[in-house]
Amino acid sequence: MNKILVVDDDLDILSLVKIMLTMNQFNVEAISRWEEIDTCMHHFKPDLVLLDVSLGDADGRDICKQMRRAEETADVPVILFSANAEMGKFINDCRAQAFIPKPFELSHLINTIKTYLN
């Protein structure tokens, strides 16, 4: 079972995404505090990270860049998501695999995740 780490400071979206992914046979760890990412990456060892761009006082794009610089997380696929569709223009800068605008269709989310897990 593939492991996915979901990071979003919106607890409603976080809960909904966790339920949807779990129902689709993924092992999901969901966190709302970006400060917990390093610990989660080390202990949970996700196969993919679904990362919100706007995390209160942090930017998911900067977190993605940090992940790319760290040996342990450099090869973990990252899918950014945001309610601001303009953020999709910046995925190459931080070397994220994909961008999904909110709101999103479940089928689109699942298909995008499967693309980068295979």
TrEMBL record:
<feature type="domain" description="Response regulatory">
    <location>
        <begin position="3"/>
        <end position="117"/>
    </location>
</feature>
<keyword id="KW-0597">Phosphoprotein</keyword>
<dbReference type="GO" id="GO:0000160">
    <property type="term" value="P:phosphorelay signal transduction system"/>
</dbReference>
<dbReference type="InterPro" id="IPR001789">
    <property type="entry name" value="Sig_transdc_resp-reg_receiver"/>
</dbReference>
<dbReference type="InterPro" id="IPR050595">
    <property type="entry name" value="Bact_response_regulator"/>
</dbReference>
<feature type="modified residue" description="4-aspartylphosphate">
    <location>
        <position position="52"/>
    </location>
</feature>
<dbReference type="Pfam" id="PF00072">
    <property type="entry name" value="Response_reg"/>
</dbReference>
<protein>
    <submittedName>
        <fullName>Response regulator</fullName>
    </submittedName>
</protein>
<dbReference type="InterPro" id="IPR011006">
    <property type="entry name" value="CheY-like_superfamily"/>
</dbReference>
